[in-house]
Design brief:
With 423 residues, this protein is α+β, with helices and mostly antiparallel strands. It contains 13 helices and 15 strands. It is 29% helix and 23% strand. The longest helix is centred in the last third of the chain and has 20 residues.
Length: 423
Amino acid sequence: MASTETLTPQDWTEVVSPPRHIADAVAALVPDTDGANLTTTQLADLSEAIVADESIWRPMVIADPDRRRYRLLYEGEIVEHDGFTIPTPRPPQSLDLNRNFPAGWGTGVPGSGDHPLSEPEIDSLVRAIVARRNICGYNAYHTAGGVLLRPSSTMSDSSLPPVDVWAWKELGKRGEALTGYTVHSVYEDFTFDKSDTMSGAADDWVYEHLGVLGWTTEFWDPVQQATGKKPSTHFWYTGPTDEEVLAVYRWAMQHHPAAYSDWVPFDHPQLGRVEIGGWDEVFFMSNAPGSRLLAEVKPHAEFAVYQALCSPRLEVLHTKVESLGGDSWRVDVGIANTGWLPTFITQWARDKKLVLPMVAELHGAEVVGGPARHELGQLGGRLDMQFSYGKNDGTPDRVLTSWVVRAAAGTTVEVAVSHQRAG
């Protein structure tokens, strides 16, 4: 489909008066004649004033809550048109790839596909992520809205571990500072009807099934560009206000005049006389114009790097070897997580046991009285110190493990420390 819309009158015989905003705008331009009829010159001046005030006639807005002057339709022909009704068609592909992930998948979700991972693109993405257990974060880039969205799409914040919500909000502060995009929970802020949630999303899947902090970025907000203010978080359902449409139109005419096509008459093979025109939905309303694209997306790369730098990171900070007499030795190794996030990333992951424990294994000497391989559980990160009782931090980010080994003096031993997410 092209980006222009087709419109027809709502009722060919019923609509006899212009929308209220047009009537009021025109009335404000009519000169005061004390009840006398306008002269020919006054009528000509009034006509020129109406034409000059483009906000009266150019943008297509819904200005009257009681009835609409025009009915907006996508261009094209109507399948099996009965001459009177126009069904709202489903998308030709009947798919929304961001509803095909396993978390919360359901047949009642529009565009969810035949079954979870039914689409090869999503199946491949999921398999690639699951095969790389060191992934600590996830960013999906969509359009449009100018917002940073986070899970959950189906649960309230009060249903999630509080520390996870806190971590999202802390990361979101940096994201908002870098990008200018506001941060929102999909369920709390973007779900118009809490009984009808948007499930099957990627960021919900990485959080619920892998315990990873996920984000969905919706690039570009023409309303904010035009007004300096964010529209309602329910704009996906209710659309922009008339004032916002007019503001976007004026801004577009100044900066990107090709974004709007004036309405022109057209003979439709089924509907008869209509008009075609309107917004460029692809390259203006849904995506930043090409000249603004780099500036729009660049800060989000910085935010992604910032998230990566918050990942857990294992380091060996302490080693000690003590002679126990003869060829017996005690080997101590102190391991720390020097990252901001804990090794398990989220409390959800820890509670659901989604992350394997850290492992330290000694090589190069005979281990006496125990295994060479030690499972050491999980380590906190700098984040955990925010919640230390009485600000007595302790060392939740450190662990000390020891082996007794038998080896000749001068023998070299190696200790390998690993964690599926922390290195």
